[in-house]
Request: fold
Amino acid sequence: MRPEDWPAARAIYVEGIATGHATFEQSAPDWEKWDAGHLAPGRIVARSAAGDVLGWAALSPVSSRCVYAGVAEVSVYVAEHARGQGVGRALLERLIADSEAEGIWTLQAGIFPENVASFSLHQNAGFRIVGNRERLGQMNGRWRDVVLMERRSEVAGQ
Reply:
């Protein structure tokens, strides 16, 4: 993903926010804020044959402590009109490969239990449930649980 991809990627992020089941965030940031919060490797966009952005995936650090340098949080967002077409799977598979090439040994995802599609996508990509974080945060005045999933690399960190 390049800065010029952000307007289209941001619009997809806004669609995810609108579902109420993709993130605790209530609005999408500008490019500079998004860029500062994500790792340089693993920024991926999926495009249609016409070049339109269909989805994106990225990694965020889980901590600034050096012992967690090989651990990253996954974000995968797919445009509403492109859902159910394998875009999410392709993005996540590429993100896993890119993360392993960068030496990242653990990927984690926090998923609202209501987001069945995301849960299934991650499970099919080798993520396992680590636990259920009950009442992790409030969203629109309502407590939300988050299922914590992780995937350990069989390549990186060995």
Observations:
- Strands lie at 44-47, 53-61, 71-78, 106-111, 128-139, 142-152.
- The chain has a mean pLDDT of 96.
- The two ends are 29 Å apart (CA to CA).
- The CA atoms of residues 8 and 53 lie 6 Å apart.
